[in-house]
Amino acid sequence: MPAPVTRRATLAFALASALALTATACGASADEETGPGGPAKPGAKGARIDLSPDQKRVRAEKVDAIARLVPERVRSRGTLEVVASAGSVPPLTFYATDDKTVIGVETDIAQLVADVLGLKVRPHAVDWANIFVGLDSGKYDVGFSNITVTEERKEKYDFATYRLDTIAFEARKNRGWRVRGPKDVAGRVIGVSSGTNQEKLLVDWSEQNVKAGRKATDIKYFQNTSDYYLALGSGRIDAYLGPHPVAAHHAASTGRSEVIGTFSGAGDRLQGKIAATTKKDNGLIEALHKALQHLVDDGSYRKVLAHWGLADEAVRTSELNPKGLPRTA
Known about the structure:
The protein is α/β, with parallel strands linked by helices. The protein has ten helices and eleven strands. The strands form three sheets. Strands 6, 7, 8, 9, 10 and 11 form a six-stranded mixed sheet that branches. A three-stranded parallel sheet has the order 4-1-5. Strand 7 (189-192), helix 6 (197-211) and strand 8 (218-221) form a beta-alpha-beta unit. It is globular.
């Protein structure tokens, strides 16, 4: 998980990405479609994405049979204390244009779940590490923050899945290449963040290419999202490998880049899963799981993902504590 950025930096990232890609995409026509799943329509110059605090969210009705599964201490309080790591870039959890309201796909999913449970959402924006500190202490009921199920985390937390953990290569539009495996990045200049699953995959692929007699990948490291936006727009890198939600949303919002390949965040052998996360055995996970499955079945869940350009990450079934990313040595 990347380090959180300030609220104003989030808006600066969005502006930098738009300026960088618009200024450098001279060969692309203005009436082309945006990236996959984006809310823009053919003929638009990019997606019109609402970043205002007054979000027209998809809502759901209370389901009494599921609401009764909520522990009494939570029911009597009437609120669902939801924690997320805000200050990242769209579309996960980020600050709206008022610089204080947290919006994004995670916020919308949490609201839907609370609706089904008959609870009012009380959002809490913290840095990444404090998500787990707060869950451990009982300060927060659940985390909706792009949290991946891992075998190590399952020792302390319960999980109800709601989205695929997918990573993506993002490149400037109409460059005529796709990434389907290691050979497609041989000799390419690819950006990535250090210490991530994306870096591990890219390094592994480069080593495979060298062993096969192909050129190594020239890996460039970026700490800030705005830096990779600028590098991509200027052509200093051929593509960037990062979380699919960020890449898909960026492509949709600018209309000047596109996702050219997606892969499981858990590697070749396992499809990673993103999940609602609670302290282990706090009694809430069953209600969350049932609520999520209800939302999948009634279609409101897919409407939220489509709104944020993430239809490709939808799951058909919410799983309780599925197999997670294996421990690292």
